[in-house]
Structure formats: structure tokens, C-alpha cells
Design goal:
The protein is α+β, with helices and mostly antiparallel strands and about 100 residues long. About 40% of the residues lie in helices and about 25% in strands. It contains 3 helices and 5 strands; from the N terminus they run H-H-E-E-E-E-E-H. The protein has helices at about 15-25, 30-50, 95-105; strands at about 55, 60-65, 70-75, 80-85, 85-95. The strands form 2 sheets. A 3-stranded antiparallel β-sheet has the order 1-2-5. Strands 3-4 form a two-stranded antiparallel sheet. Strand 3 (about 70-75) and strand 4 form a beta hairpin. Helix 1 crosses helix 2 (about 30-50). The relative contact order is 0.10.
């Protein structure tokens, strides 16, 4: 039997589906679960604004990194432009998750 060689990504889970799944797994009411997720995201956002990293055990670390200013060339006009420095959010999964993603498990 031949395997399907065409990659078809799984459908993304929207917020409502995520909250329903989390509520079912934790046995909390969906409203309480929504409040918990909102508070978690707010707390993480506050940490990022302060420049702090957020480590979630057995998952990974979220951190902000500063990108330096740079010169960019507009491909359509050839004009050089200065791109100002900015903060970007970076996620690094822990080793267990990296191994799972590599192995396709």
C-alpha cells in the first residue's frame, strides 16, 4: 500500500474550540477557562513589555529579542530605507518538543 505523499496540514483550532477543549480536559466551566486563558495571556504580555522571558516548564520559553536598525533596499524602486530597531517575540521549544516535531510524532 502506497502512502499519501501530499502534505495536508491539520485545520487550525480557533479560540472557541481551544477553550472548549481546555475546559473539557480540566473539568472547569468554559467561562472560567476563558478567564484563565485571558489572564495568562495578559500576564505574559506584561512580562514581554518589561523585557522578561516567560518559561513554561515542559514546553519552552518565550522571549523578546531586539532587532537592530538596518538598511533595506526596496526591490521595486531600488531606494534605500532605514528600518528602525524593534522588539520581536521568539519561542524556543524545549528538547522534548523539538524531538517530537523532528520525528513527526
Amino acid at each position: 500500500m502506497q502512502k499519501n505523499l501530499i502534505y495536508t496540514p491539520q485545520r487550525d483550532m480557533n479560540n472557541k474550540e481551544f477553550i472548549a477543549e481546555l475546559a473539557e480536559r480540566t473539568k472547569y466551566a468554559p467561562k472560567d477557562t476563558q478567564r484563565l486563558v485571558n489572564n495568562l495571556i495578559d500576564a505574559m504580555g506584561d512580562a514581554f513589555q518589561e523585557g522578561d522571558a516567560v518559561l513554561i516548564p515542559n514546553f519552552g520559553v518565550f522571549e523578546t529579542k531586539k532587532k537592530m536598525e538596518r538598511i533595506m533596499i526596496n526591490p521595486s524602486t531600488g531606494q534605500r530605507m532605514l528600518v528602525p530597531p524593534k522588539l520581536v517575540l521568539n519561542f524556543k521549544p524545549n528538547q522534548t518538543w523539538r524531538d517530537k516535531l523532528k520525528g513527526g510524532q
